[in-house]
Amino acid sequence: MRSLGTLRKHAAVLVAVALWIPAVAFGIRTLWQYADTPGRVATPPVVWPADALARPAPGPATLVIFAHPQCPCSRATIGELAWVMARSRDKVDVSVWFYAPAQGPGSWPKTELWQSAAAIPGVRVLEDKDGNEARRFGASTSGQALLYDSGGRLVFNGGITALRGHSGDNDGRNAIVSLVHGETPIRHATPVFGCSLARVD
């Protein structure tokens, strides 16, 4: 026969397992909800803003992306941008604007994320002091992408990742590639998964 002490140990293990399983399930659910929760989509002007520091390209379409240099979610956005450029480099002019506090040191926005974006052939990387350029385009979430056609008209508004921090096939990146190749995309707007552009760490 098992001793009373042994039975108590087994009971304690069963109780611990019974508590651990729902705790793990709750944690997984919470992480999934976070990954699946988009930020605020931009409310951009339908025509390229005349007061923007960025200038639209004279020939091809123009893609602008706004990012926070310390947003871990935006690593996936930069990875997807590389995918887009590998298929459309000669058909789209691209600039990535990184939020930079006006009073911060010049090196503040130049994180690994900045370096990754700058390493993509055909991509210009610029500082967005206090998020002024993002405000001109109505952007408030890191990873926001806006595509304007050669006539300066907005044709895509959204993100280019399927979930927060997740790379892979998604409607946003596919829409941009379709549009710059003269095709009709499934969607012209997608959710944006990223941190607030106003967040300062």
Can you give a write-up of this model?
It is a single chain. Helix 2 (74-88) runs parallel beside helix 5 (171-180). The longest helix has 32 residues, at 4-35. The chain folds into two domains: 1-35; 61-180, Glutaredoxin, CATH 3.40.30. The protein contains five helices and five strands, in the order αβαβαβαββα. With 201 residues, the chain is of the alpha/beta class. The chain is globular, with a radius of gyration of 22 Å. A five-stranded mixed sheet has the order 3-2-1-4-5.
Helix-strand makeup class? alpha/beta
Number of domains: 2
Radius of gyration: 22 Å
Stated plainly, the CATH topology of the largest domain is called Glutaredoxin
Determine the fraction of residues in helical runs and give it as a percent range: 25-40%
Number of strands: 5
How much strand content do the residues show?
Answer: 15-25%
- Under the CATH scheme, the architecture of the largest domain is 3-Layer(aba) Sandwich
The average pLDDT is 85
Give the spatial strand order of the biggest sheet.
3-2-1-4-5
Principal-axis shape equals: globular
The unreliable regions are 22-35
Q: Provide the CATH superfamily of the largest domain.
A: Glutaredoxin
List keywords for this structure.
alpha/beta, Glutaredoxin, 201 residues, 5-stranded mixed β-sheet
Topology:
Layout: H1 4-35, E1 61-67, H2 74-88, E2 92-100, H3 112-118, E3 123-129, H4 132-136, E4 144-148, E5 154-158, H5 171-180
Parallel strand pairs: 1-2, 2-3
Antiparallel strand pairs: 1-4, 4-5
Provide a quick synopsis of the model.
It contains five helices and five strands. The chain is α/β, with parallel strands linked by helices and 201 residues long. The chain has two domains: 35 residues; 120 residues, Glutaredoxin.
